[in-house]
Prior knowledge:
It is a single chain. The protein is mainly α. The protein folds into two domains: 25-113, Tetratricopeptide repeat domain (Serine Threonine Protein Phosphatase 5, Tetratricopeptide repeat, Alpha Horseshoe); 130-234, no CATH class. 61% of the residues lie in helices and 0% in strands. The chain has helices at residues 2-25, 29-41, 49-58, 63-75, 79-91, 102-111, 115-129, 133-145, 159-164, 169-176, 186-202. α5 (79-91) packs antiparallel against α6 (102-111). It is elongated and about 65 Å long. The N and C termini lie far apart (86 Å).
Amino acid sequence: MKKIFTAIFCLGLIFVIGTTTYAKTVKDEQYYFNQGQDYERKNNRLGATEPYTKALEINPDFDKARIARAQIYYFYGQYDKALEDYNYFYKKTPEFGPAAFYDYRIGCKKQLNMNKEAFDDMYEVILAYGGQANVLKDLFAFAELHPELQAGLDPKTHPDLMEKYKDKSKNLRDYAQMYKDKEGNITNQKYYDFFINIAKTMNPDIILDVEYPTELPRKAPENSQVIETSIEVK
């Protein structure tokens, strides 16, 4: 009986040792992500890109590793590499899309002197949100800084985007109301015309004169917040 017990104990010990060894040697995407996090905690952020890359080689859809790597690339000025990662999220719909990490993505394009691409990206973000005040201001400021881009404010120069976001026409029309009837304010009139022109280009039959209740939000959203209304419109 003692010999049997000893044999069972030895087998159990071998199993435990074997399991522990296996756990130590299995290097999956989570293992490398944790390693990258440890590098960052030890203030070796740039070195963390290597284990993050290994994690993505194992699982290209491991978003946490890609986000972490993209942020490191961005803050160390490796904008071309950062843009590749941020473009991944742009193309990954519906989980992400054009509104995902748009500030970093546009920032990369600006740093790489991809001015036309940055401008078009801002334009699309505005459409994707159905109106986005912060990006709108950046868009007009960027157009003033680069006069060759000002023609791109005309929605007719973006036929693909007009078709892609056609279902946002009513949102953009409603969003324009925030800037309507601001007597003497040239900027607000410019923004109103911008959104109305887009809405009409998307949907020539859209009704522009709509009765809006007094509780319609009038303030432009902050922190990427989308204006929502409960208005029944046609």
